[in-house]
């Protein structure tokens, strides 16, 4: 069974996709960009500020679906510049102080809305 997850505490989908989909105890969170859901705007600052907002958005979706960061099994991080990897990793690690999920990180040519980072997440119960 497929259940669509939607929360006002994370940015609304800006295309034909859902914030997240849950199926058989697995939650698939669409790539989150650093949009503040209260303002609808990209957060100001650099990669650390953008990463923190992305993680807050992921946290809001996890919570809306009844999950936590402890349930996350895989993340995929997309960066517009791999020179930002260490700074992104510093903020990312704050959300996974122990037993972090599997992860891949890629440098890409361009991300939506000109952001510096996008992260998609998979969680399981």
What does this structure look like?
It is a single chain. The mean pLDDT is 97. The chain has one domain: RutC-like (60s Ribosomal Protein L30, Chain: A). The two termini are 15 Å apart. Helices cover 23% and strands 33% of the residues. The protein is α+β, with helices and mostly antiparallel strands. Helix 1 runs parallel beside helix 2.
Q: How would the blueprint of this fold be written?
A:
Blueprint: E1 2-5, E2 20-23, E3 26-32, E4 35-36, E5 41-42, H1 47-64, E6 72-79, H2 85-95, E7 102-107, E8 117-124
Parallel strand pairs: 6-7
Antiparallel strand pairs: 1-2, 2-3, 3-8, 4-5, 6-8
What's the CATH first level? Answer: Alpha Beta
CATH architecture: 2-Layer Sandwich
Q: Helix fraction?
A: 10-25%
CATH fold-level name? 60s Ribosomal Protein L30, Chain: A
Please provide the ordered H/E string of secondary-structure elements.
Answer: EEEEEHEHEE
How do the strands of the widest beta sheet line up side by side?
Answer: 1-2-3-8-6-7
Beta-strand residue percentage = 25-35%
Q: What is the distance, rounded to the nearest whole angstrom, between the alpha carbons of the first and last residues?
A: 15 Å
Largest sheet entry: 6 strands, mixed
Rg over alpha carbons: 14 Å
**How many structural domains in the coordinates?**
1
The general outline is: globular
Count of DSSP H/I helices: 2
């Amino acid at each position: 069974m497929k259940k669509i997850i939607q929360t006002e505490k994370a940015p609304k989908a800006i295309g034909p996709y859902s914030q997240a989909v849950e199926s058989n105890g697995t939650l698939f969170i669409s790539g989150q960009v650093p949009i503040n859901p209260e303002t609808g705007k990209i957060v100001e600052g650099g990669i650390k500020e953008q990463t923190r907002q992305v993680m807050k958005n992921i946290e809001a979706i996890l919570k809306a679906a009844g999950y936590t960061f402890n349930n996350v099994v895989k993340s995929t991080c997309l960066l517009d510049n791999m020179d930002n990897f260490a700074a992104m990793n510093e903020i990312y690690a704050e959300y996974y102080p122990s037993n972090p999920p599997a992860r891949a990180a890629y440098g890409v040519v361009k991300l939506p809305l000109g952001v510096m980072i996008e992260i998609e997440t998979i969680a399981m119960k």
